[in-house]
Amino acid sequence: MISIVFIFFIRGLYLWKGYSRLRHEPPLSRSGLHTLGYEHLLIGSSLRKHRNTYAKISKKAIEHNLKNEQARLGADCELFAVVKANGYGHGAVEIAKVARDAGVTGFCVALLDEALELRQAGITEPILILGIVDVANIPIIAAEKLSVTVGSLEWIKEAKLKTKNHNNRLRIHLALDTGMGRIGFRTVLELTEAENTVTASKLFEFEGVFTHFATADEADETRFNKQLEKFNELINSLNNKPRFIHVANSATALWHLKIPTNIVRYGIAMYGLNPSGNALKSPVSLEPAMELISELIQVKKIQPGDTISYGATYEATGCEWVGTIPIGYADGWRRSLQGQTVLVDGQRCEIIGRVCMDQCMIRLPKEYSVGTNVVLVGKSGTDQVTMEELAEHLDTINYEIICGITLRVPRIYV
């Protein structure tokens, strides 16, 4: 029996060492990427180090967008970079490092695991978790000096039971539901009781209070003003104002500059995308940070009547050149992108037939050689495909497009 246990122990130790080695193994350079100078392939296991489809992330674009916002900040306002959802699909750790070097003073995430990922990567600046965390994780949160969002009195009472046996005070931001309908305190009575409970305890640090506007990216400001009025009512009921009182996401920061806030939670605009889509013009220059690039892996000439992809939804009416691209809906390149165009040699080429799990096909204006670059998002020649264009095709928002690019697509930082 002892020998069997010992064998399983040795086997487990071997597997753990192998896992640790793989985790710390430097990324391999694909020859094509090396030629282009994109050796820095940060996201992806060994299975994702050899792909000819990748997202190219511009550090300079991130810096540009942050500098523009910093120039608009008041003297007492701090800029927090929002890097939840893997940095909106751009890579949380790498973007956090770029943002830190650009001068942001803190970060926002949605989940505890996202905050811990930053801490493990050496990010020591303040981190605010915008989502509600399980009180069972309070010892970890306090030890890592993370700030948490609180939206109910029940959470505070339960948290008191979890914070008795550690030294660090729990940093709390009270969320106010002023009209978003998501999380937070809704009435003066609720907020007063929460404030009294938090400030009466030495276990907590009442660090902040905030709200989130539902329509800051719309031209009609009726609902925005209603939320602002509710927020002011709740804030004025506080006996002890915390250090941070903040309301500004990207949209509020861009189009409601005069609203008092001492933290700007800069998310989508940091990545160079307009929070409103095309509804409102951005008052500052936004430079998109992500391009999505692939290449032709097969080119063929088809005849009239030939069909393409599942369901034979595309039938050639004449002789046509067709190229295959190694990207599909498993990469976040949605199945319903049939009919959307991509760029080959600066020319628009339509996606024909249904997008498959791993590949899709495009109609070419002429024969191109295998290996020819295909720009799915970004510039080629004098033309450009934008995230907003994809969002309009899919009847969604640019946020969903960038967050939907899956992890099997490598991110290359330039």
Automatic annotation (TrEMBL):
The keyword Isomerase applies. SMART domains: Ala_racemase_C. Its cofactor is pyridoxal 5'-phosphate. It comes from the Eukaryota. The modification N6-(pyridoxal phosphate)lysine is found at residue 84. Substrate binds at residues 182, 357. It holds the Pfam family Ala_racemase_N. Keywords: Isomerase, Pyridoxal phosphate. One of its GO terms (biological process) is D-alanine biosynthetic process. InterPro entries: Ala_racemase (IPR000821), Ala_racemase_C (IPR011079), Ala_racemase_N (IPR001608), Ala_racemase_pyridoxalP-BS (IPR020622). GO terms for cellular component: cytosol. One of its GO terms (molecular function) is pyridoxal phosphate binding. NCBIfam families: alr (TIGR00492). This is (apollo) hypothetical protein. It comes from Parnassius apollo (Apollo butterfly).
